[in-house]
Design brief:
Protein name: ABC transporter ATP-binding protein
Distance between the termini: 38 Å
Largest sheet: 6 strands, mixed
GO molecular function: ATP binding; ATP hydrolysis activity
CATH superfamily of the largest domain: P-loop containing nucleotide triphosphate hydrolases
Order of helices and strands: EEEHEEHEHHHEHEHEEHEEHEH
Organism: Mastigocoleus testarum BC008
Bound molecules: adenosine-5'-diphosphate
Number of domains: 2
Radius of gyration: 21 Å
Shape: globular
CATH architecture of the largest domain: 3-Layer(aba) Sandwich
Keywords: ATP-binding, Nucleotide-binding
């Protein structure tokens, strides 16, 4: 089987209420996959089930071909996890955080030191190895979390809102790090609230280096526990409509999708009164709002 991650009819129920409902999809090896959804959609619960932190109530989940319930140890060995809740220890140094993780995974020396050095260099923290983590910036802490998650050489990396609360330059640097990992073959699943993040990492808009023949990643949108759409950015745009007519009506805006930009323009040209109307290509945020009926918060 070639899938890195596979879910089949997965449910999670709390107090008789299903917060994840009948979720089925697969992520291929080497793919970068963005999971989007409004707050409460079930993204974190899904990530927690995929990373063995909580058990599915029903259905089957396989990671690298291992069942999350039967083979949870093997699943844990094949994944790296960066969650908001699994933060680094501020009272330890950068190196001590890495050393602790390396020992947890029983990585013997000198390999452990080699991997610690390798990953600290990769996330540009080599020069901060002896500093206490509480003296690092938010972006550095996040990079340390990523280095720590990669220490045991997993094939799949889970990132739950990796750039939340970071400034634009720091976010861009993290995107490059995440993209670099994917270019090296790492399968990545990330959740985020930021549309530009998904467009950059999973869309066709990301910077592509020469000779980089990767396929664009895919995007899944969840709402009320269900996966409501799944595809590449281009597929989602084709499905919803690539052309958008934006029209101001009183205090608010109306959005009208057309299959192509030309059709949206034709429609606009036919209007006698074009006041408050404009045409532009649709983007992921337009599609998200159209499908979930809500703004991100
Ligand atoms: P998201 O990450 O998309 O914001 P979550 O997976 O955190 O969504 O939450 C989905 C729903 O599940 C929410 O309504 C939340 O209140 C509920 N939920 C999450 N964890 C628990 C829990 N441990 N007990 C009860 N309800 C929970």
């Amino acid at each position: 089987m070639n899938a890195a991650i596979s879910l089949e009819n997965v449910y999670k129920t709390y107090n008789n209420r299903s917060v994840v409902k009948d979720l089925s999809f697969t992520i291929e090896k080497g793919e970068i996959f963005g999971l989007l959804g409004p707050n409460g959609a079930g993204k974190s619960t899904t990530i927690r089930m995929l990373t063995t932190l909580t058990k599915p109530s029903q259905g089957q989940i396989e990671i690298s071909g291992y069942d999350v319930l039967r083979d949870s140890m093997l699943v844990k060995q094949s994944i790296g996890v960066v969650l908001q809740s699994l933060s680094v220890d501020g009272d330890l140094s950068v190196w001590e955080n890495m050393e602790f993780q390396g020992r947890l995974h029983h990585i013997p020396n000198p390999k452990r030191q080699r991997l610690i050095n390798q990953w600290l260099e990769y996330v540009e923290l080599g020069s901060r190895r002896n500093d206490l983590v509480k003296t690092l910036s938010g972006g550095m802490k996040r990079r340390l979390q990523i280095a720590r998650a990669l220490l045991h050489q997993p094939q799949i990396l889970f990132l739950d809102e990796p750039t939340v609360g970071l400034d634009p330059q720091t976010r861009r640097r993290l995107w490059e790090i995440i993209q670099g990992l994917n270019q090296q073959g790492m399968t990545i699943l990330l959740t985020t609230h930021y549309m530009d993040e998904v467009e950059y990492l999973c869309g066709a808009f990301g910077v592509r280096t020469a000779g980089d023949n990767r396929k664009p990643g895919r995007i899944g949108i969840m709402d009320s526990g269900k996966l409501i759409t799944l595809g590449t950015l281009q597929e989602l745009r084709s499905e919803s409509g690539e052309g958008l007519l934006v029209k101001q009506v009183g205090e608010h805006w109306e959005y009208l999708f057309f299959p192509t930009l030309r059709e949206a323009s034709n429609y606009l040209n036919q209007q006698e009164d074009k006041t408050g109307m404009m045409v532009r290509p649709s983007n992921l945020e337009d599609i998200f709002v159209e499908l979930t009926g809500r703004q991100l918060d």
